[in-house]
Design brief:
heterotrimer, A mainly alpha (about 290), B mainly alpha (about 250), C alpha/beta (about 240), A: about 290 residues, mainly alpha, about 60% helix, elongated, B: mainly alpha, globular
Chain lengths: ~290, ~250, ~240
């Protein structure tokens, strides 16, 4: 055993220095630390859950609780509303987990009971909470848009949420394409355009204004093509098969540039639409599923 | 210096022959297999599957670290195998450090096995390489190394059983201590009591910072500063614990 | 030459080694004493497992506590404990690797294992070894670095009569090779047989050091041993009375 010389002093110096360094590092860490954006649901958070979160097990715990909560949706047919309490608990344990929100928005309105009121209301409330707290998940706004359109006949809100879904990272191709083109059918176009105009004019937010304008331009372009097709029919007796023919025959001097990058087609009945086989590259970059 | 490596290599060789270690690793693998079933229950929802897998790896690694840290060093000393070693030109510091690094290597071995199973699971279920998950596992490993260092430190002065109790306690506290502080502030704890809680907060190993799981599950990357600070924190704390352990061990009558 | 100068080891109030002063310059030296006399403690201090409370030990003029000396010595602890899951050969290799440049000499390990008589069990786990085999392995690892000085604590403990004969032969061979051996024992017969000099230790004190024959002076060793111990006890009693 080596005799204890000045190594004793240097060891205590090392201990003190390390402690100071540890305190400093912890302080620095706290200063720069990033947290996931989340809002606790308020009343549901108990100290128990806080502790769970600290051990870092909360996503796993939430996921595990979800496995038992999900089947409870069927109990709603019997009028038992445990599902609502349990999904709120799951969402409180891990507010960032998006699936419980999305699932609720999708399935709750589908339960048409006279005893269980407000399935739609609950769905939309859970959905809004999910939009605030959870990881970006295209399914939440997408299903909400469906609920607004099908459940409440609220096309304006449907448009807003479809737009949100289209802009969510990771939105699959079909959903993005559908969302951007919701309501462009020739018989709905006018209404859709009016709604977008209302949205644009009732907001001060520059981003929303620009976004609404893009939809308006998209719809305008479709109208232009359709009108041109009608002109063509007038002049040549048949509808054109593609927009190139409109150019070739001088009906249009240029094909309008679509803000969403879609290619326009002319259907057999003269109405205009978008080419489903020529989706813009940013959509094709999204997952297929 | 060379001696540290010799002892580390020997520790690795011996612990790998331990049936208990294998038992734990096999349980870990069974759990990952079980996650396949859980995955079906959540309809293969990716963040949820990741949470099951990563938390499982964390849990099993913690058990392995607890087991190795509280028994390996202690047994060598208690059973006097060290007589052969310390009568040769090997210092006590070299022996202790060799044990520490050897146990880290064993833990690394176990982590690799479980990680491969986990990444295979994710690949099979979703066809992709979970790089963020791997980062989370790496951060967990760092936490476990700190855990090992603490366990060895405690086993220089306590028996295996007590070491398990102390180490588990500190592990638990290390995760809870930051919410303790914010709870204390919330309820308006003042004066000396708050200072005491703050001292606790700063001195106890703050293990939260190694939790990249939450971020990985929600597909968020850890910012580099946080990562660097966490690594530095682990390194300094490990140095502190091992220095203290060496200091105690050198004074110990064997 | 190994010199002990006022070596003392005390735990709290208990003095285990008391002002031990001795010079040894013979091939085989035996520390003889009852169980608990302090022999093991002395040896642990020599090989650096314990630090002395005061006093020094020098080997060839330099302090034994200097790390360089561990290269020159071999130590066999009383009741050796091993890593049970290692094989005998692996253990020997491991011990040698703790020395600079060691760990590679397969032939050397084989010859050592043959010398101590456990070559046949070299690839079996130490956990399967008998007590005698463990003693032999302990002996072998003490030789792995080709040491000048050997410190053996009860090396013949647990060996059967044939084993004891064999190991004594080995020790005499080592003496012929020019090595110096210190051994701890409480078996008088062994001291008579192979030790050049003996040190009688009782309750941490050195009662006699010198040639075995001179100590015996014609009487059986056992008788002389008892005489010396009893005389020492009487002296202590007398001192206690006068105080």
């Amino acid at each position: 055993m080596a005799p204890i010389r000045s190594s004793s002093f240097s060891k205590s110096a090392l201990v003190v220095f390390s402690l100071l360094l540890i305190v400093l590092l912890q302080y620095e860490y706290d200063a720069t630390k990033m947290t996931l954006p989340s809002e606790a649901s308020g009343s549901g958070v108990t100290p128990f859950m806080v502790r769970m979160a600290d051990l870092g097990f909360s996503p796993a715990v939430a996921s595990f609780l979800w496995t038992t909560t999900m089947p409870e949706i069927l109990d709603l047919f019997n009028g038992h509303a445990e599902y609502l309490n349990d999904v709120a608990f799951v969402n409180a344990v891990d507010p960032n987990m998006s699936y419980p929100y999305a699932f609720s928005v999708l399935t709750l309105p589908a339960i048409p009971l006279k005893d269980f009121q407000g399935g739609l209301e609950d769905a939309l409330a859970i959905g809004s909470q999910g939009l605030r707290s959870a990881d970006p998940d295209w399914r939440i706004p997408y299903y909400m848009a469906m609920d607004y359109y099908l459940g409440l006949n609220d096309t304006k809100d449907a448009l807003t949420y479809f737009d949100l879904a289209a802009r969510t990272p990771g939105v699959p191709q079909f959903a993005e394409r559908f969302s951007l083109n919701f309501g462009i059918g020739s018989n709905q176009r006018e209404t859709t355009k009016e709604l977008w105009i209302t949205i644009r004019d009732s907001t001060n937010d520059e981003f929303t204004k620009a976004r609404a304008q893009a939809y308006i331009d998209h719809l305008d372009d479709l109208d232009i093509i359709q009108a041109a097709a009608a002109q063509y029919k007038q002049a040549f007796g048949v509808y054109p098969t593609s927009t190139d023919e409109l150019l070739a025959r001088g009906i249009l001097s240029a094909i309008p540039q679509d803000p969403f990058g879609f290619t326009f087609v002319i259907n057999g009945d003269g109405t205009s639409g978008i080419d489903l086989n020529k989706l813009p590259s940013y959509i094709l970059a999204q997952p297929a599923q | 210096m060379r001696n540290i490596f010799v002892i580390a290599k020997n520790t690795l060789k011996l612990e790998i022959r331990d049936k208990i270690l294998y038992g734990i690793i096999i349980f870990g693998l069974l759990y990952i297999f079980f996650t396949l079933f859980l995955s079906d229950l959540v309809l293969k929802e990716l963040p949820m599957v990741k949470s099951f897998g990563l938390t499982g790896i964390y849990f099993f690694n913690a058990i392995i670290a607890l087991f190795l840290g509280t028994t390996s060093f202690f047994k060598d000393v208690d059973r006097k195998v060290v007589y052969f070693i310390l009568s040769k030109p090997v210092s006590r510091a070299q022996f202790l450090l060799g044990k520490f690094f050897g146990l880290c290597m064993v833990l690394f071995f176990a982590t690799v096995i479980l990680s491969v199973a986990y990444l295979g699971l994710i690949l099979y279920e979703h066809g992709g390489f979970d790089a963020l998950g791997l980062l989370a596992i790496a951060m967990q490993f760092l936490e476990m190394a700190l855990f090992l260092a603490f366990a060895i430190f405690v086993s220089t002065f306590s028996s295996s059983l007590l070491s398990i109790v102390y180490t588990s306690g500190v592990f638990f506290l290390g995760h809870v201590v930051s919410s303790l502080l914010s709870a204390a502030k919330q309820i308006g704890l003042g004066g000396i009591k708050l200072v005491l809680v703050e001292i606790l907060y700063y001195v106890f190993p703050n293990l939260e910072k190694f939790d990249a799981r939450d971020l990985a599950i929600h597909a968020v990357a850890m910012p580099f500063t946080e990562f660097a600070l966490a690594v530095a924190y682990a390194a300094v704390y490990i140095i502190l614990l091992l220095s203290a352990a060496i200091w105690i061990f050198e004074k110990k009558e064997i | 030459m190994v010199e002990f100068s006022h070596l003392t080891k005390a735990y709290k109030k208990r003095v285990v080694v008391d002002d031990f002063t001795l010079s040894v310059d013979v091939p085989i030296f035996g520390f003889l004493g009852q169980n608990g006399a302090g022999k093991t403690t002395i040896m642990k201090v020599i090989v650096g497992l314990l630090a002395p409370t005061s006093g020094t030990i020098t080997i060839d003029g330099s302090l034994a506590s200097h790390p360089i000396f561990k290269k020159k010595i071999g130590y066999m602890p009383e009741t050796p404990y091993f890593y049970e899951k290692m094989t005998g050969m692996e253990f020997l290799r491991f011990c040698d690797s703790l020395f600079e440049g060691g760990g590679n000499d397969q032939k050397h390990y084989e010859s050592l294992l043959k010398k101590v008589g456990i070559y046949g069990a070299r690839d079996f786990e130490i956990g399967t070894y008998s007590k005698g085999m463990r003693q032999r392995l302990g002996f072998a690892q003490a030789l792995v670095n080709d040491p000048e000085y050997l410190f053996l604590d009860e090396p013949l403990d647990g060996l059967d009569p044939i084993g004891r004969r064999e190991m004594k032969e080995v020790m005499l061979d080592l003496k012929k090779e020019g090595r110096r051996i210190f051994l701890n024992t409480h078996i008088l017969y062994d001291v008579e047989e192979i030790c050049d000099e003996v040190g009688i230790i009782h309750q941490g004190k050195l009662l006699y050091a010198g040639s075995v024959k001179a100590f015996c002076a014609g009487k059986p060793l056992e008788e002389r041993f008892m005489e010396v111990v009893e005389e020492h006890e009487k002296q202590i009693a007398d001192v206690a009375q006068t105080v």
